[in-house]
């Protein structure tokens, strides 16, 4: 029997968080403004969710739509926000920034990683929009706290990214530098993708819309999360 896979569910508020935990989620990604693909939630939201559930939370650090960190003062502001979120109970985070050429904005990422002071964090789907995935991974290698890469393998989703995901899973199994982080698959992920991904050794899955069969205007469905939990456990 393979080890239990991680199921991460996007939560916008307490109702989502409680439903996700009840359905069997292992972890939440906390965001606001899903129309902008998920921005940084307020410290109050984080504190409320932390009080309502006892599963792991990863909090988004993303000030605006897109993958640019902004000017130095924007990064300064995000560093201050990260401190406020930690004070509100956040212990794990999600972030990722690209420069104008599509490479990793290493200065911004290193600045935030330093502020997080060893907290575990995910580099999010900015990797799917970068100019060179391999170069980005190797530039990030060794940053404190980085333990996960959230990716669909392609900017258009898992359908197109599946070959990349399988190849990167193989490079992780071989211990190649830059590929040690856990692969968390999300972005157009469907249940029918799961057997192939599990067979490749991928053991972490991220869902947002799939946890909300009635759309983003409705909260997370306990039944939908439980269906995913069952599918992952069967794998």
TrEMBL record:
Matching SUPFAM superfamilies: CutC-like
Pfam families noted in UniProt: CutC
Top-level division of the source organism's lineage: Bacteria
Similarity field: Belongs to the CutC family.
PANTHER family: COPPER HOMEOSTASIS PROTEIN CUTC (PTHR12598), COPPER HOMEOSTASIS PROTEIN CUTC HOMOLOG (PTHR12598:SF0)
Protein name: Copper homeostasis protein cutC homolog
